[in-house]
Sequence to fold (310 residues):
Amino acid sequence: MSERKAQFAKQFINAIPHAGALGMELTQIGDGKAEISMPYDPKLVGDPKTGVIHGGAVSALMDTCCGAAVMSHPDAPAGTATIDLRIDYMRPATPGHSIRTQAECHHITRSVAFVRAVALDEDDDNPVAMATGTFTVEGR
Amino acid sequence: MARKHPEPVQDVKKRRDAALSALVGGVPYIQFLGIRFDRRGDELTALLPFDEKLIGNPFLPAIHGGVTAAFLEVSAIIELSWSLLWEDIESGAISLEDLQAGTLPRLPKTIDFTVDYMRSGLPRDAYARARVTRSGRRYASVQVEAWQDNHDRPFAHGAAHFLMPRRESE
Fold:
């Protein structure tokens, strides 16, 4: 990741109050791809019996990561907004581990960006969740 | 046979409110977002009071799309759980003591969730109502809609599928 891109990525995440509230950290960005990690936090638990993170927090992470991927695409001139997002929850995230998401903007037109993303914990071969979304392409 | 005397209204309300508070109060993430539930009989309305930490785009400003998704998802799962618990709450199969201690049966798990964003979420309070469209033995479908100032202009809606908890007899 180039110095300038890295700087932009950091500013992008820091400027989002909710991303900060969830402790999100952007670890990679560029060419329509983004990776964001969210540390385990007891305040994000959805099931107090098991300590598993709430699906809603995973959704927020997925949405942010997909948006970042769109903004980093060479053909995306400015901002973006989610049109729709579908998330499949394959298994509960392991309590105590951070959740990483990798998003890729795999196709973009003048008006729409198509994105897919995956959420992982410590087990790279066994995703926690997958997402498919469409986003607006602004400022053109 | 004489008709059973109706239960005093305050006892009924106490039991229903204890059930709702056991369902909602025990979930840290619901508390983190600040979501509350308003109850009229068996009808629930979710309320998300605006807070700075919910902002996704500080320049507009607008509520984070992820917060909107989470709000819809919380509303959907609470509505479904509530509808599953309702009969046991009414019959007294789940006791007030259990509810006050926060003891609840197993709850449904989200299989998938789709959210459509119709407008950006403004920096003000949001409301949501969910409807269980199918409640089967193994799977359930729920639709949910969120609005802000004007109920006729929802800003997002969602559709979710849930895996039902296994019954004890199985």
